[in-house]
Amino acid sequence: MKHRFSFFKKMHSLKTVLLLAFIIIGFVPGCAIGGIFLSFYQSRALDNDTVSMTSQAQLLNDQIISTGYLKDTDIDVINTQLKALGNIYSGRIIIIDKTLRVVKDTYDLSDGKTFVWENAILGLKGERTSVYDDVSHCLILTVPITASDRSNTIEGVILITKSTDAIEQNITFYRNLYTYILLVLVVVIALIAVYFSDRFTKPFEKLAGLILNSQDTHNEVKVDNYTETEEISANFNDVMQKMRDIDESRQEFVSNVSHELKTPLTSMKVLADSLNSMEEGAPVELYQDFMHDITHEIDRETKIINDLLSLVRMDKSGATMNIESKNINEMLESLLKRLGPIAEKQKVELVLESFRPVTAEIDEVKLSLGIMNLIENGIKYNKEGGYVHVTLNADHQYFYISVEDNGMGIPPDSVDRIFERFYRADKSHSREIGGTGLGLSITKNAIDMHHGEIKVHSVLGEGTTFDVRIPLIYIKEQS
């Protein structure tokens, strides 16, 4: 079984395919050319014999008419000539009169007999015919015997057969010679095919080796012998770079998760140890402060876990999307109502402006979570007396949500990275207000799952605007 699998594997290799292709391309045309040549030679030789026999028949026609041979066959000169011509052609000559009676047969087999044959009858009608019998290898020619006067009366038919053994011998010779030449040609083609197939496939074998080694060395693959190998090398390098980026991102994500989950636990352990080490009679207020800090760390741990669970749900395929036609105006009003207490506590004005009623096909849970993160960030990363302005608009194809605030803004060097998991533009301030660095990543995933886009414009110290565009009709991706 193993040997059979190895055989089929070799048969499917590019080198084997090229080798067979070279042999077929060289062998098949060679066979075709040889067959065409032999057929052409035979046809040409028969045509030449037909022309020669027709000329001899015309000479006989004149002599037969002038001597009256059809009525008196005892003319030695013509009989001798017929015998000699039959010997030259290694064949037979039959003279037939217009009643289909055989006047003379050089084989002396049919003298005086009636010769009924289609071509003889056609000859009496003035038609000259030529037939090649490939079984007996002879050429049969029938020529009308025409009177020499102006009446052109047909007096009989001359039937001449000529052996084509010489032609067949030549064809056999040429066929054997061609077979030897073809065998030599096949050997030469096979050697050429082996050389070129090996040369053509060597860059691909080199490419395969480099790809295998590059997984350990992280070196770039470059084989530019052909355009195809160059494109494969470039595409492989791109894929490997993306995989390395994904791996680095995964490692960074795991590291960040471990750090983010460990930090509150460490804080709680320190606080708990501090509580255990307190002397009896410590003030109740001190215990309350420590318990308040522990509760804060527990809340922070809970939010990190909830955000991580949200990310896991977002990372699932589009098949988990619960798409329904929803009123976007009502969804935004509900979000602002839920976030109102937070805005009041931060003393931030929360405003919703809808330009028209909008209904779209969305997963309300996922999109609500994403938009809520934008609005909540606008509230948290704001200043006292600031505002968060949410607008809703639509056209015939998309609906647009804009979340604008006049808060602290985002540093220019951080704008392109704010959607990365656990990335914080202002780490110290984020920790103060309990940020996990996952909110904007969740938002980006939610919008991507709806085949939408999100853009951000921010000026440090002046505020940030997030512009979201989502199709009104959800188009499920083909699996």
Task: Note down, in words, how this protein is organized.
The chain has 479 residues and is α+β, with helices and mostly antiparallel strands. It has helices at residues 2-11, 14-67, 76-89, 118-124, 165-217, 227-277, 284-315, 328-346, 364-380, 427-432, 439-449, and strands at residues 92-97, 102-105, 129-133, 138-146, 154-163, 324-327, 349-354, 359-362, 387-394, 398-405, 453-459, 463-471. Helix 9 (364-380) runs antiparallel to helix 11. The relative contact order is 0.07.
Report, as a whole number of angstroms, the end-to-end distance: 36 Å
Spatially, the strands of the biggest sheet line up as 2-1-5-4-3
Work out the radius of gyration.
Answer: 51 Å
Ranges with pLDDT <50 over ≥5 residues? 1-5, 427-434
Mean pLDDT: 80
How much helix, percentage-wise, in residues?
55-70%
Instruction: Give the amount of beta strand, in percent.
Output: 15-25%
Largest sheet: 5 strands, antiparallel
Number of helices: 11
What general form does the structure show?
Answer: rod-shaped
Structural class: alpha+beta
> How do the SSEs run, as a string of H and E?
HHHEEHEEEHHHEHEEHEEHHEE
Q: Can you count the beta strands?
A: 12
What's the structural blueprint in terms of helices and strands?
Blueprint: H1 2-11, H2 14-67, H3 76-89, E1 92-97, E2 102-105, H4 118-124, E3 129-133, E4 138-146, E5 154-163, H5 165-217, H6 227-277, H7 284-315, E6 324-327, H8 328-346, E7 349-354, E8 359-362, H9 364-380, E9 387-394, E10 398-405, H10 427-432, H11 439-449, E11 453-459, E12 463-471
Parallel strand pairs: 7-9
Antiparallel strand pairs: 1-2, 1-5, 3-4, 4-5, 6-8, 9-10, 10-12, 11-12
Helix pairs in contact: 2-5, 5-6, 6-7, 7-11, 8-9, 9-11
